[in-house]
Automatic annotation (TrEMBL):
Organism: Rhizobium deserti
Family indicated by similarity: Belongs to the binding-protein-dependent transport system permease family.
InterPro entries: BPD_transp_1_N (IPR045621), MetI-like (IPR000515), MetI-like_sf (IPR035906)
Name of a matching Pfam family: BPD_transp_1_N
Membrane topology annotation: Multi-pass membrane protein
GO BP terms in the entry: transmembrane transport
Cellular compartments per GO CC: plasma membrane
Superkingdom of the organism of origin: Bacteria
Protein name: ABC transporter permease
ABC transmembrane type-1 domain location: 113-322
């Protein structure tokens, strides 16, 4: 297992380099100009000076190599210095800067990440905790009333887009019943019990929208995988040996059924960090999803490049984690 993991990590390096080149090239070739929003009265030579200050007067490969240096070397060193308080070198190193704010891109991401983790992370966690027992019971009691209701709700929750579900919940629980706020207050500071309760109240609607969508998707996979394993020979053998039904269901069947589900869950984890773009727009959650939308609208290419590449890194990482979990869940899977 260790050899396999090390081999996959080494293979991930050229993979991420190719992904970074593709992302950088696509966004660099996009028809966007950082001086496009400036007044037309600005002389062309001033526009060229602005482009030169942003480094756009240099060749493509030079800019790409500088971006790699800033992302893989300078930014990790800066994070290490901020965490430990130690200084590496003179501290005067180039960082990936936003064209719009001229602030370091990593600082903007770190500033927005807590809001996204609070809302999207909790929604994903609740979705998993809800989906697994519903999927198990639905498969075990196939065609029962519980199975039919659960299948119907999961079909609706997975088919209906989140922007529609969010608007419906806002109309019912914010406008009509006035139980929960419709706008997420990012500036709220949790300092006492009342502010903590206010934080929980404003998180209910966006978390409910995303949890319903995530639970609906995962429930379908859990139910299908459980049904596939419930009729296998090892289940009949375990029952013939007198193993209790609960042990057969929760130890033997569930463990093998989670193997394909792990892939779905692992590949969904990067969406926690990318943020639910549509849901954050509906409830005005000032997270990473809204940051990406703002960067795209403002043609802030360095911010878009960095965010997109971070999402790619997370996908590669959690793919590796899913493969390692396969060997833990199923002893028959051996990589070495």
């Amino acid at each position: 297992m260790f050899t396999y993991t090390l081999r996959r990590l080494l293979f991930a390096i050229p993979t991420l380099l190719v992904i970074s080149f593709v992302i950088f090239a696509l966004l660099d070739l996009a028809p966007s100009d950082p001086t496009g929003d400036l007044p037309l009265t600005i002389p062309p030579e001033v526009r060229e000076q602005i482009r030169a200050s942003l480094g756009l007067d240099q060749p493509f490969l030079i800019r790409y190599m500088k971006w790699l240096q800033q992302f893989f070397i300078n930014e990790p060193i800066n994070i290490f210095e901020s965490l430990t308080g130690w200084q590496v070198g003179d501290g005067q190193r180039m960082r990936v800067l936003s064209w719009a704010t001229r602030s370091p891109v990593v600082d903007l991401i770190v500033q927005r990440m807590p809001q996204t983790l609070w809302v999207v992370g909790l929604a994903y966690l609740f979705g998993i905790l809800i989906a697994i027992p519903i999927g198990v019971i639905s498969a075990y009691k196939q065609y029962s009333i519980f199975d039919q209701i659960g299948t119907f709700i999961s079909m609706v929750g997975y088919s209906v887009p989140t922007f529609f579900t969010g608007v419906v919940l806002i109309v019912i629980f914010s406008s009509y019943l006035q139980w929960f706020p419709s706008v997420y207050d990012t500036n709220l500071q949790v300092t006492n019990v009342s502010t903590f309760l206010a934080q929980m109240r404003q998180m209910v609607l966006p978390v409910a929208v995303l949890a319903l969508y995530n639970a609906s998707q995962i429930t379908r996979f859990v139910r299908a995988s459980m049904l596939d394993n419930l009729h296998q020979d090892y289940v009949r053998t375990a029952r013939a040996k007198g193993v209790k039904e609960k042990a057969v269901l929760l130890i033997h069947v569930l463990r093998n059924s989670l193997i394909p589900v792990v892939t779905v869950i692992a590949l969904g984890v990067p969406t926690i960090f990318s943020g639910a773009i549509i849901t954050e727009q509906i409830f005005r959650v000032n997270g990473l999803g809204q940051l990406l939308i703002t960067a795209v609208q403002g043609a802030d290419i360095p911010l878009v490049q960095t965010l997109t590449f971070i999402f790619a890194v997370l996908i590669v990482l959690f793919n590796l984690i899913a493969d390692v979990l396969y060997g833990i869940l199923d002893p028959r899977i051996r990589y070495d």
